[in-house]
Design a protein that fits this description.
Order of helices and strands: HHHHHHHHH
Oligomer: single chain
Low-confidence stretches: 1-26
Radius of gyration: 23 Å
Helix content: over 70%
């Protein structure tokens, strides 16, 4: 008989399709993490380092999303030490374990260590000149602008309602006006946030919607 039975089509299983989010962390090798943070350490200036961190980790590399970046940055703010170094350790560990953390922190501090050694020598020799003071004022203003621009970018994606605005106002008031320690402010807001956004609460349901 010529009409042999055709093989039954094998059902297609959905598990072979990988989502971009599941492959994001595996795309970051130790070498890539080191080079990325080396560039951050070499090109970020003053308080504007957070802008460079978000630009690299979220916008360019897409290793983290804004929600994860904010979570890691909040943790780094509550820990002693420099925020940039803390963020390097936290992000590197999340992307590639302890080797990623070591590569990230080495990359981010290496340019600054070398440049600040040279800058300290130059400042000791020429720091009293008016042109040097004027240049430092300009750099400080630019760094403030970078921080504010990053705040706007993150706020537009993370703030969900008036309660978050109250948290921001409370943090500004407690830190800038009442001079409360940043650590205490973060702990207090974390406790209040846990109460307000606890599972099943009205705030949590409205945020999920």
């Amino acid at each position: 008989m010529s009409d042999a039975a055709a093989p039954a089509p094998t059902p297609q299983t959905p598990e072979t399709t990988a989502t971009p989010s599941s492959a994001t962390a595996s795309q970051a090798s130790v070498a890539e993490i080191f080079l990325a943070f080396l560039l951050i350490g070499a090109t970020s200036f003053g308080g504007g380092a957070v802008a460079y961190l978000r630009s690299t980790l979220v916008a360019k590399k897409q290793w983290l999303d804004d929600k994860t970046f904010l979570e890691l940055y909040s943790i780094s703010q509550s820990l002693p030490g420099l925020n940039t170094t803390n963020m390097a350790i936290l992000a590197g560990d999340r992307l590639c374990g302890w080797m990623g953390a070591a590569a990230a922190v080495l990359g981010v501090v290496l340019p600054g260590a070398l440049l600040m050694t040279l800058a300290a020598i130059a400042y000791g020799m020429h720091g009293e000149r008016p042109i040097v003071t004027s240049a430092l004022h300009g750099v400080a203003a630019g760094a403030t602008g970078l921080i504010f621009a990053t705040f706007i970018q993150l706020a537009s994606k993370s703030l969900r309602g008036w309660i978050d605005l109250v948290f921001i106002a409370a943090a500004v008031l407690l830190v800038n006006r009442l001079h409360v320690s940043v650590l205490y402010v973060l702990i207090a807001l974390a406790v209040v946030g846990t109460i307000i956004y606890r599972p099943g609460s009205r705030a949590a349901q409205s945020e999920a919607a």
